[in-house]
Amino acid sequence: MRYKELKPDNGKEGARALVKDEVRKQIPETKFSEEALRKRIERAQKVYGLFSSINVDVNIEKHSDYY
Questions:
Q1: Organism's domain of life (predicted)?
Q2: What is the per-residue pLDDT across 2-59, written as a single tens digit (0 to 9) for each?
């Protein structure tokens, strides 16, 4: 969702970089590797896609404890 807000002003790559920076600020230092971040983003996209496909409004932040 945040990506869609940032994309018009920053472009595709700029929006991705900004989202990654925001996510990094929320992840504990022990799980800070690029690989861990990529996996977390992939999981969040899958959860969002699942709930979007059945037309359920989902807030990814509520599910962040599971990732």
A1: Eukaryota
A2: 777 787 888 888 888 888 888 788 877 766 778 877 888 888 888 888 877 776 665 5
Q: Token pair of 4, please? A: 């869609």
Contact yes or no for 23/45 (Cβ under 8 A): no
Token reading at 24: 């990094």
The predicted model scores a pTM of 0.50
Task: Report d(CA 67, CA 51) in Å as an integer.
Answer: 16
Rounded Cα distance, 64 and 2, in Å:
15
Half-sphere exposure for 23 (CA within 13 Å, toward CB) = 25
